[in-house]
Amino acid sequence: MTTPAPTSRSDWAAYNAAQAGRGRIRPLTARAVDALAADADLRARHAVELGCGAGVEARHLLALGLTVSTIDADPSIAPAMAALAAGGALDHRTGRIEDWDPLPAADLVLANAALPFVPRHAFDAVWSRIRAALVPGGVLAVDLFGAEDDWSSDAGTYLTRPEVEDLLRGLEVVELTERSERGPAFSGPKHWHVFTVLARAPRRPSDHSPV
User: Which keywords describe this protein according to UniProt (predicted)?
Assistant: First the structure.
């Protein structure tokens, strides 16, 4: 029997409980932080994480001195996120990504494998909010799922490469990699089709740039 594809309305508690023991941040998070740190002091920066799960990435960002705003649909993680928020640099909310409107201004928008679970009918509005939230020079670090993914359906958002490239129009694309292969998932092996994106919003022109 095929396991139903997860959605933003799925019960994520078991997955997040398993992820809570993960010590390392995801590679995309590390590359995003490096890109952000290349320009300015991280302690003056604000990150928005969409689908924060057990808070592994948020904890790392806080340790680096960023202020962080997070959202996740799983209410079971709220106590752990409240403990992280006690330091005053984290604002967490329980809810679905598609219901957060508007997003706060962000030097970094991070979504590790979370945006594909936004329903297709809501995705364009979510993407517009993400683009609007990025400050000039801000970093976008997200995973998007492709149309060949085993979970592909209108209950989530699964894209072709031209669609992904169109979403990135106007951004400085630092990295766009595509992976299409069979591999493990929390629910069992499946075919993954994933686009990993690292990009920047346009920077403000220098005061000394010619008019």
Answer: Methyltransferase, Transferase
Residue type, 102: P
Q: Which has the closest alpha carbon to 48: 170, 157, 138?
A: 138
Total domain count for the chain?
Answer: 1
pLDDT digit string, tens, across residues 22-79? 779 999 999 999 999 998 899 999 999 999 999 999 999 999 999 999 999 999 999 9
Q: Are strands 190-200 and 134-146 parallel, antiparallel or unpaired?
A: antiparallel
Cα separation, 155 vs 121, in Å, equals 9
User: Do the domain assignments include residue 83?
Assistant: no
Domain of 196, CATH number, reads 3.40.50.150
How far apart CA 29 and CA 37 sit, in angstroms, is 12
**Is pTM, for the whole model, over 0.85?**
yes
Residue 108 lies in a domain: yes
d(CA 41, CA 153): 41
Q: Which tokens in the block code for residue 183?
A: 């591999």
